[in-house]
Amino acid sequence: MITSRLGFFWLLLFLWGFAPQSGCLSQTFRIGNFHSLKATTFDKDSKDVFAIWDDSVRVFHAPAYTTSELIPMNPPQKNFAGAYHPIVIDSELHFVSKSGGMLYRLEGDSLRRIDRSFDHRMQINCTLFTRNDTIMKYGGYGFWSQRNFFTYFSRETNEWEIVSPRGSEVLPEGTQSSYQVQKGNDIYIFSGLSTDPFDPLNMNEFDEIWKFDMEGRRWEKEGKLNEDFHNHSLVVHMGDKILFDVPMEYKLVLADPIRNTLTYYEVWGETRKLFLHYSDQHIIPNFYHDGKFYLVGQIDPSPTENLDLAYTVLDESEVLKKPIAEEPMYSTDEFPLEIAGGVVATLGVVLFLFFGVRRLQERNKVGVYPDKIRYGGKGVAMDATSVQVLNLLLRSEGEVQSQAVMDLVENPAQSHAHNIRVKNQVVENLNFQLRTLLVLEKDLITPGKSDEDKRIKTYQIDRSYFAVR
User: In the CATH scheme, what is the code of domain 364-465?
Assistant: First the structure.
């Protein structure tokens, strides 16, 4: 994504060098060679840094990082380190498959598989993260489609389980390569790529931000992004914020979805050479913890065949020291506040008058709902068929023919005589429920004969007792 900047940054590195030239570069420690190093990860509990090769892991111990421990590793397959994401849980190094559900844990010098999953290849480029020491994934690509749900690794079943959005009325599009941050019960998902529903071979940029409430299992769209994050390079996750590098503009942007802000910072002096990734296929990540950045860079910029890498530890104040602008991260598609205030005030008065008058008119009326009737603070549960018959009687002008009621209750599998008994029973039950609710002695639904043809049985209801809408 940013390989075009490689030559420019090498020039900067050559001019500035890697050795500390000011007090801001507090610690630097070599981690390995770019050509052989496969990945790195960070333990937030111990603050140790793990450097990973195909056949070994070296642990650099905090706080000085001058001592390290080399652990031989016997991978279960060729190119294992490149096919798995390293992640630390409870100070134990795990490896999560980049395409399926396989999960390994490093125990001594052995990799032990702890899952009971398979290589389903349905969550390629998913968003991998941890929540309360639980490994989670969101989205991902597979079989010409994108996922729009969360999965997590269950330590009880040793399998990946799904988080069902049972409280949601709307859902986001499925995406891959999205970003996430967390705050309390909420997880924010934004940016990424979605599949064109009319041409699954093409990808569209996903320019929305959504919030998922883990407790209520509910999705809510927050708005449309004001920034195109596909043109930015991820620098590091900073808790509930994410820091990006804006290519060729010598500035950083701190995305804060929770507070809906984008804060831009100047990339200054010594820090410029530290915002460098080497290719789309091989990215050694930066880390952030307890107000400190762990930024990867190249030790000697001259010989391209060498490319030894090191982490430099910097205080947050040394990196984000020159804010230059701030703007909203996303738009909520709402009315401008000035216009909205007047509209809401006027609408409020109209609604108050409308519903106030109606409320007075309906105060002593029976309300009919999809599963019950209510009167005077009391309710009576009703089945769907009875509600349909009651609504038919209330919404019909004048009399209702018996056959119209029969059409609602009739079961074709039963005899005609049986269906007549069922119809009569429904009407009798309605009268009983209404008499009980209203404390009346008379029936509100009464049978009769059609004015047009006395052979046709009809029903009528006294509408004066009901709030008919």
Answer: 1.10.10
